[in-house]
């Protein structure tokens, strides 16, 4: 007598498990990091710090400045402890973002946001490790007012943070 084969019905995926892993967005973090480092190398090769400027429009220049502080030169006037502190914060934040991306499925905007922030954070950590400061070069101004110079890494962090806020307003998927 032949044995009957048992047929199992596949379980439907749970809502939090649907979609690709957030780690599938790591390519964007790598791209952000690469563009950041390449543009900084180009600026360092072409512009003397605090001296040269390339005016591209009536409101946008390329310059070469060093930032030992955080955003908007916060803590830049400190005696040097901030270099290690900001490197540690960047590395811990990067590890947390990778962990969150690994745990996340089916939340593309959330993962995209974290990837941009991750690429930017690592770009600035690399600068601090190699040079002791961050290379900034994007200089926007209008009617004598200058926005503090920034870089591609800072742009990734900012755009990622805005997208993260937008994602927080989205309704979670229904189970």
Instruction: Tell me the strand order in the biggest sheet.
Output: 1-2-3-4
Rg from Cα: 22 Å
Which regions contain 5 or more consecutive residues with pLDDT less than 50? 11-17
Compute the separation of the termini in Å: 44 Å
Please state the average pLDDT score: 87
Structural notes for this entry:
With 175 residues, this protein is α+β, with helices and mostly antiparallel strands. It has a domain at 62-169. Helices cover 49% and strands 13% of the residues. The chain has four helices and four strands; from the N terminus they run H-E-E-H-H-E-E-H. Strands 1-2-3-4 form a four-stranded antiparallel beta sheet. A hairpin with a 4-residue loop joins strand 1 (53-55) and strand 2 (60-67). The chain is elongated and about 85 Å long. The chain starts with 25 loop residues before the first helix and ends in a 7-residue tail after the last helix. Mean pLDDT is 87; it is low at 11-17.
Any key phrases for this structure?
175 residues; alpha+beta; 4-stranded antiparallel sheet; 4 helices; 4 strands; 49% helix; 13% strand
Question: Concise description?
Answer:
With 175 residues, the chain is an alpha+beta fold.
What's the SSE blueprint?
Blueprint: H1 26-46, E1 53-55, E2 60-67, H2 81-103, H3 108-131, E3 134-142, E4 145-146, H4 152-168
Antiparallel strand pairs: 1-2, 2-3, 3-4
Helix pairs in contact: 1-3, 2-3, 3-4
